[in-house]
Specification:
The protein is of the alpha+beta class and about 280 residues long. The chain folds into two domains: about 30-35 and about 200-275; about 40-190, Ribosomal Protein S5, domain 2 (2-Layer Sandwich). Helices cover about 30% and strands about 30% of the residues. It has six helices and twelve strands. It has helices spanning about 1-15, 15-25, 95-120, 150-160, 220-225, 250-275; strands at about 40-45, 55-60, 60-75, 85-90, 125, 130-145, 165-170, 180-190, 200-205, 210-215, 225-235, 235-245. Strand 9 (about 200-205) and strand 10 form a beta hairpin. The longest helix has 23 residues, at about 95-120.
Length: about 280
Amino acid sequence: MSEMLSDWQKKVIEPAEHIREYITKNKIRYDGRKANQFRNAAVHRNMITTADSSAIARIGGTAAICGMNLEIMENDTLIPSPGLVLNIESVSPTIVVSWQNEIDKAKCILKSLIEKNIINSKSLEIFNGELFWVIYCDFVVLDCAGGLLEVCLVALLAALQELRFPVVRVLHEDFKINLKNIKVDTTETSPVSLSNVYPVASSFLKLGDEILICDPTDEETKLIGDAFTIIVGAQKTLCGLFKTGGAASLSKQLIDESVEHALQRRRHILQLLGIEDEDH
């Protein structure tokens, strides 16, 4: 009993030291996972009837909804390339403060990924660039227990898979092509042209010199630190490596091990999304 009480006291008084000792000694984490084990992932599509496309993704205790709506604009409109406007909000303004760092990180990285590795920007052009499609992409964070970027990226890919562009026709061939001279035909549609990179993000923690923790929870990240995220795509492409906490450097061996776990995770996520993995 005294040992249990002492263990409980240490968890309360020295939580960072306790979690390190717990994982090192027991080879499992507080939630029962092994160090290299990822949380279960799930995705559901078209849950929002008022959106042109939507998806909700969940990884462990983290969940977010991605809703998309389309609009046609003229080519002189100041819209960020490649024609996708992204926003991430919390389901409740009262709790967004504790999630703000995760939201800001996810927003920044997603914008970079979209431009380089997700959407073929030429596919958004209409009539050789006279007009173009704008995709308004709104995320609502339902819960955040670590790995928000990973969840948002899965929801984004799933929603883009379901998005369809209506056919746009010119009303009067002899007049200039603009918003007043077109008709949108929703009876005929085409899918979004996505790149074949299909990037997937995975986060990790470095615990000491030997232990690599995959898919950390928010609690683990706060207590252990030394967090980093790896994004991999098709043909084992490294789309990004972001170190988001801690002062320790990452060895080549640790990065190689992390990339291998990230590639395995990507295969699982692509299977979840129904996307064929061309690497296998």
